[in-house]
Specification:
Layout (H helix, E strand, L loop, with lengths): L1 H48 L5 E6 L5 H16 L3 E6 L4 H13 L4 E4 L8 H9 L3 E5 L10 E5 L1 H15 L3 E7 L5 H19 L3 E8 L5 H13 L6 E4 L2 H13 L15 H9 L5 E3 L2 H16 L8 E4 L4 E7 L2 E3 L5 H5 L6 H4 L4
Parallel strand pairs: 1-2, 1-3, 3-4, 4-5, 5-11, 6-7, 6-8
Antiparallel strand pairs: 9-12, 10-11
Protein name: Monosaccharide-transporting ATPase
Subcellular location: Cell envelope
GO molecular function, one term: carbohydrate binding
Length: 361
Amino acid sequence: MNYIYRSKKAVKKSRIKILLILTLIFFVTALIIFIFYYPKFDNKKQQIIKPTKVRIGFAMGTLKEERWFKDRDILIAKAHERGYEVEWVNANENDVEQINQVKYLLSKNINILIIVPNNYEKCSGAVNLAKKRGIKVISYDRLVKNSDIDVYISFNNYKVGELMAKWLLKSVPRGNYVFLLGDPGDYNVQMIKEGYHKVLDSFINKKQINNILEKYCYNWRKEYAYNYINNLLEEGKRIDAVLASNDSLAEGAIMALSEKRLAGKVPVTGQDADISACQRIVKGTQLMTVYKPIDRLVDLTLEIVDKLIKEEPLKSVYMLNNGYKNVPTFFIDPIGVDKSNINDTVIKDNFHTWDEVYITK
């Protein structure tokens, strides 16, 4: 009986010991799971809440004109203020190089592509590369034709042409007009042309205005403008007005006019409000320029970037067919600037300072 009693007591102790061991194993296991796995769950939760930093690829077709430096610098600065990173490239007016540069931007894992096409048709291949990667594409200031761009953002280039024409009409309601167009690969040129023809065609049809020359200046080179004007003057043609599509072309035209002592006597338009153009306006050798507030264009672009990243719908006033589809289009109105309002526009907006514009040499 004593043996049986001791045996039962031993079994009871053994069971308690096993229970304690199992309890200890449970708590140790739970502690290991908590230590090694809970931070991973927490990190995953943090990754969902905290989004990856957005990287913008900015593919520029050129930096030849003064204005493009402003676009680049303002866009980078404002993007950084929003916490975005910007990787930018410049194709230097080379179509093949622009495609290669877009490949480079894609290799840098950009989230969105903002592209200024060097050529509105040849750039479609660059857009296709981005779209195959699922990257949204913004066509910035210049339209990319025949491509699956997500949005087109620009100044209203139809109105650019209209403003130039209206300023010339006020100054020269009848006479011989010269039209200096920009590069034919820039679709803005076609819109500018449509804009000024809308204003002037009735006067041309009535023979009040004679279109004595209307030609493209390839790559927006002022040398073309100089040669066109110089050749007409050498041929003895009278020029009463020059519609130059940007300030660089205006400079070329005015150089040729000045050699015949006609600078300031023949009204010349321009576009972009380059500092040299503003100086010519106050001096009296250039009639006007079309000022495009780049700050507003950049702000609008980054607002669109926000929406595209968040996959929010775009509510555009315009839909423009680019040959592939109807593209949501956002236009900002440009501003005609001459001697009478340059202080209240270009200088007031600090696009240029008073000292820069009214510099005396």
